[in-house]
């Protein structure tokens, strides 16, 4: 394992065409299908970063901002923005793209935590995160800030 890896080492983008089997009776993406895509994309980002097998440990609050309609392309992107000793935190965003017009809109966002495992299935250390460019540092800072605000909002609701 290397001592460090960059945010871009983890960057992953997947595309999916929304087909009828993945829609509800309104012709929109089923939430579970979108979560499945997000989990896969996030896991790939975690594995690319750590060079280890990774498993999902948690998923934060999910915001379904806008629907994905039948025939649209879902673009799922993920990147590591923070690390622990054996865990990586991944920001996952989904946007819908109309393939006929090129119009795009944000649809879903969440934060995932993955744990890296060695060959015997035991949690294993992950590299430190480096952000060598201004763009990488901005992405990292924005993700950390957004997660902090989200957690603060949840705590305030609980305290009620």
Please tally the helical runs, counting DSSP H or I stretches of 4 or more residues: 3
β-strand amount: 35-45%
What ranges have pLDDT less than 50 throughout 5 or more consecutive residues?
none
Shape: globular
Beta-strand segment tally:
8
Q: What is the alpha-carbon Rg in Å?
A: 16 Å
Would you mind describing this structure in some detail?
The chain has helices at residues 7-10, 31-50, 134-159, and strands at residues 4-6, 12-17, 53-59, 63-64, 73-83, 87-97, 104-117, 128-130. With 160 residues, it is an alpha+beta fold. The strands form 2 sheets. Strands 2, 3, 4, 5, 6 and 7 form a 6-stranded antiparallel sheet that branches. The protein has a two-stranded parallel sheet with strand order 1-8. The protein is globular and about 45 Å long.
Helix/strand layout:
Blueprint: E1 4-6, H1 7-10, E2 12-17, H2 31-50, E3 53-59, E4 63-64, E5 73-83, E6 87-97, E7 104-117, E8 128-130, H3 134-159
Parallel strand pairs: 1-8
Antiparallel strand pairs: 2-5, 3-7, 4-7, 5-6, 6-7
